[in-house]
Amino acid sequence: xxxxxxxxxxxxxTAQPDRFWTAQQARNFLLELDGETxxxxxIRDRDAKFASSFDYILRSEGLRVNRLPVQxxxxxxxxxxxxxxxxxxxxxxxxxxxxxxxxxxxxxYDRHYNNHWAHSSCNHLPPxxxxxxxxxxxxxxxxxxxxxxxxxxxxxxxxxxA
Length: 162
Prior knowledge:
Blueprint: H1 19-33, E1 41-44, H2 52-59, E2 64-67, H3 77-89, H4 99-115, E3 144-149, E4 154-159
Parallel strand pairs: 1-2
Antiparallel strand pairs: 3-4
């Protein structure tokens, strides 16, 4: 999670994460950043699957990698809150039929969170949107469109195109 913008980057689902998988996720994360690595600090826990290759890949692109101190999980509070949200608002409502099904639900939640969920720390805009919406004098029921995701668990309302 990028703490300032609240934008979340989600890795693919896997049943057996190992050091090779995490190294590939570091490469994928760098592709997501698209060269905008200045000032980025990655905070990770002390799990053994984060081998030195994980840190090396990120540091070679100019990122700072900090390991969480031992037995202080609350330092990762922003990410822990996001995990709590995805569990209680999405994954707890499904019986998953496999890894692809789980990945689909998490990807839908991630898209909703990054593109549509207004955050007070982001001036009440979603993390992926930084431009102010145009002012609207008045709206009627016919001017609003309801969009549902995940069978209605996630709902957003948009202004109907003119």
